Structures are given as structure tokens and as C-alpha cells.
Automatic annotation (TrEMBL):
PROSITE patterns in the record: ABC_TM1
Signal peptide: none
Protein name as it appears in the record: Sulfate transport system permease protein CysT
InterPro entries per record: CysT_permease (IPR011865), MetI-like (IPR000515), MetI-like_sf (IPR035906), Sulph_transpt2 (IPR005667)
Pfam families with a match to the protein in the record: BPD_transp_1
Domain ABC transmembrane type-1: 71-275
Subcellular location: Cell membrane
UniProt KW Transmembrane helix keyword: yes
Oligomeric and partner information: The complex is composed of two ATP-binding proteins (CysA), two transmembrane proteins (CysT and CysW) and a solute-binding protein (CysP).
Transmembrane parts of this sequence: 23-48, 68-97, 109-131, 143-167, 199-217, 256-277
Native organism: Acetobacter musti
Family named by the database record: Belongs to the binding-protein-dependent transport system permease family. CysTW subfamily.
Keyword line: Membrane, Sulfate transport, Transmembrane, Transmembrane helix, Transport
Length: 291
């Protein structure tokens, strides 16, 4: 039998192996530098700024009922808007992937429109559309339904800016889901409703949770598209980002940074909770698929 010689290649002493990816170290250093400069440094400044005036500024902020009302409106409105966007986004993603819609490319481009247009333009458009004399506001006003200048208008604006996050999170997963799975379930006797609830939706659940988290996070900090349609009444339709601007206009910088700090902490906790839920859902799917 022919023996195969064991050939080993040894580097000369004192020489390090070359990087597996050319330019990896330079890219890593540049990434860490820009991340620290653009993300970490501003966040650190925001965290330290409220305490520079002493603990009194933070104590006053914690006793501000107007601030807590604005935070409640921002978080509740963002949650409701993201929750409503979930079924709408899933259905729209399904239509784009599975159905052969006329003008599909135009619809696909319109979905990304909230990403492109300025938020102020969105706010003015929605306020004009849902205003008392608007195309949709006037018929709704005859029915006793008010959208503009109410808390409902905030939810409508956040639904508009948050819907693309749901669609773009679910769409690639739906494209990778073979239609044969649905056909096999139908051949095995599953009804259309069972195919959707037991085959399609479980596969889309992690992506749906991700899209919900992105839409929710965008809604918490949304400003331009909300202030034109909200009415901005304290304790009723005033959002937290607007209250920060109000404090800055009053030259109350400690109060503004205190509100921003509390909003940052609350937003971080909510996003951590959504990320934890997404991991639990993904692990549950893996455990359920294991034999």
C-alpha cells in the first residue's frame, strides 16, 4: 500500500500567521472608533449631563407629573401602533411574496416611502388628510370620530412610520419559506386556517417580534410626524420628545436632559424585554423542531 506522507508546514520562528481576512484589524479599529464616537460618546454625555447640576434636577424631573404623562402617551401610543401594524404588515408581506398583484413593484416602493420622506412632511400630510376639513377627517367628523389633534392621531402617525419595519422584517423570511410546506400540509388534510396558524405563522413569529420591536422603538422617539397631528395638549396628547423640546425652549437644560435620560432608560428596558422575548421565541422553535 502506498503511504501518504504527513507534510506539515511550519512558519519561521517569530512570524505570526497572516490575518484570514485582509484588512480585518483596520476594519475592526475603524468600526470601534466610529461606534465609540457616534454612539457611545453621545450616550455617555446624556447619562452624565443630568447629574452635573446635582441630584436636584433629577429629583425635580421624577416629581414632574407632566413628564410621566408624556412618557405614558409615548409608550402606550407606540405599543398600540406597533401592535396594529403586526397583522397589517404580515398580510401585506404575504401579498407581496405569494400573490401576483398588479403594480407590485409600485406597491413595494411605496412601502419604503416613510423611510424616505421627511417626518415633517408626513405630519403635515396626515394632519391635512385627517383634519376636520380633510378628505378622511370630514366624513369621520360627521360620524362623531375625531382623528386629528387627539391621541388617536398619534397612533395613526406611528402606524404610518412603523408599518415598513414589520413588512421588511417578515418579507425575507416568507420568501425563504418554501410553498411546498403549505402544499404538504394541505395534502395531509389541514384546512387553510390550520395551514396559516400551524405552518406559516410559527415560522414568521421571530421575524414578527423583531419587526414589532423596531416599530415600537421608532414610535417611542418619533417627533416630526406626530406633533402636527397630535394637538400637543399637556396630559392628553403631548409626547415625551415634544416635552424635551419645550424644556429646551424654556432654557431648562437640566430638566430636558433629565427627561431624555429617563426616556433612554425606559426605552432600553423595553427593547431589552423585546430582545429577550425574541430569543425565547427562537429557542422555543428550535426546541420544538428537535426530535
Amino acid at each position: 500500500m502506498t503511504e501518504v506522507a504527513d507534510v506539515s508546514f511550519a512558519l519561521p520562528r517569530g512570524r505570526r500567521p497572516a490575518d484570514p481576512l485582509p484588512g480585518f484589524r483596520i476594519a475592526l479599529v475603524a468600526t470601534l472608533f466610529w461606534t465609540g464616537l457616534i454612539v457611545v460618546l453621545p450616550l455617555a454625555a446624556l447619562i452624565m449631563r443630568p447629574w452635573q447640576e446635582g441630584i436636584g434636577a433629577m429629583t425635580a424631573a421624577l416629581q414632574d407629573s407632566r413628564m410621566f404623562a408624556a412618557l405614558r402617551i409615548s409608550f402606550v401610543s407606540a405599543f398600540i401602533a406597533a401592535l396594529i401594524d403586526v397583522p397589517l404588515g404580515v398580510i401585506l408581506a404575504w401579498a407581496l411574496v405569494r400573490a401576483r398583484l398588479p403594480g407590485r413593484r409600485i406597491i413595494d416602493a411605496l412601502i419604503d416611502l416613510p423611510f424616505a420622506i421627511p417626518t415633517a412632511v408626513t405630519g403635515i400630510t396626515l394632519a391635512t388628510l385627517y383634519g376636520p376639513q380633510g378628505w378622511l377627517g370630514a366624513p369621520l367628523a360627521h360620524l362623531g370620530i375625531s382623528i386629528a389633534y387627539t391621541a388617536t392621531g398619534i397612533v395613526v402617525a406611528l402606524m404610518f412610520v412603523g408599518l415598513p419595519f414589520i413588512v421588511r422584517s417578515v418579507e425575507p423570511v416568507l420568501r425563504d419559506l418554501p410553498p411546498e410546506f403549505e402544499e404538504a400540509a394541505g395534502l395531509l388534510g389541514a384546512r387553510p386556517r390550520q395551514v396559516v396558524t400551524r405552518v406559516v405563522l410559527p415560522a414568521l413569529l421571530p421575524a414578527t417580534v423583531t419587526g414589532f420591536g423596531l416599530a415600537f422603538a421608532r414610535g417611542i422617539g418619533e417627533y416630526g410626524s406626530v406633533i402636527f397631528i397630535a394637538g400637543n395638549q399637556p396630559f392628553h396628547s403631548e409626547i415625551a420628545p415634544l416635552l424635551i423640546v419645550v424644556r429646551l425652549q424654556e432654557f431648562d437644560y437640566p430638566g430636558a436632559t433629565s427627561i431624555a435620560f429617563i426616556l433612554l432608560v425606559a426605552s432600553s428596558l423595553c427593547l431589552m424585554g423585546i430582545a429577550w422575548l425574541r430569543r425565547r421565541v427562537a429557542r422555543g422553535m428550535v426546541a420544538g423542531a428537535a426530535p
